[in-house]
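How a chain folds remains the central question behind the approach discussed here. In the encoding step, the backbone of a single protein was reduced to a row of integers, each denoting a local shape. We regard such an encoding as a compact summary of how the chain folds. The sequence in question and its structure tokens are set out directly beneath this paragraph:

___
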Amino acid sequence: MTAATDWGRRAAALYAADYARKYRAHDDEIGTVEAYVRFCRWLGEVGDRFDRDIDVLDLGCGTGRYFRALHRARSIVGIDASAAMLAEARTPLAPQEITATRIELVQGDILVDDLGASQFDLVYSVGVLAEHSPLNARIVAAVARALRPGGRFAFTTVHPESASIPRTLGRTIGRLIFPMTRGIARRRLHDRLTARGMYADESLIRELLDDTFEIESLERIVSEAHLHCMCTARLMRAGGPPCALSPHTKE
């Protein structure tokens, strides 16, 4: 399958076979990395909020390094733009810790593919949204459609104040004057600072989830690479008509 958007094509090109093998090898070395342990604990806590076994969708699953973290998972669908990463996900990290009895891997572009309708209890994404692809209203609506009533959306973003983002002159000036702006000027500057969803702070996340999700937790966490926002939200209102996950390539 060929990714349908520039973001999907870039991800597929970046995570080609050689890179994917190195990425998977790194999985075996990150078990004690503080940020990875925190992300795993967070996902486990989200799973524990359910009183039943759950069906899970991983947006941008990569090598499946977070499959082990999911408590109560009955099934997992992992979608990723890179066929090479999905090939590595056939042998994910710590398979003995994975509770799911069914794992399906789908090559697809999360920005345009249908994610299904009322098929999942939990949709999560770590290190993808507002990092490698935009976090925008289309993604939020697709996730809302995919979730069952009371389902949860758990995701991380790169915060626009992350030290990993290049400090261009325009960004430096924008950050300095942002607290003094109001109205349309403030909104336009915020759009520029978040690169229209390529980074996401608490304000953008609240705006995108408003009226559809109830935010249960929203906090910052520092990894070895970025300053992140880490959000868990519960579906209040489903969105959109029924549609099926596009079965481009299934493993």
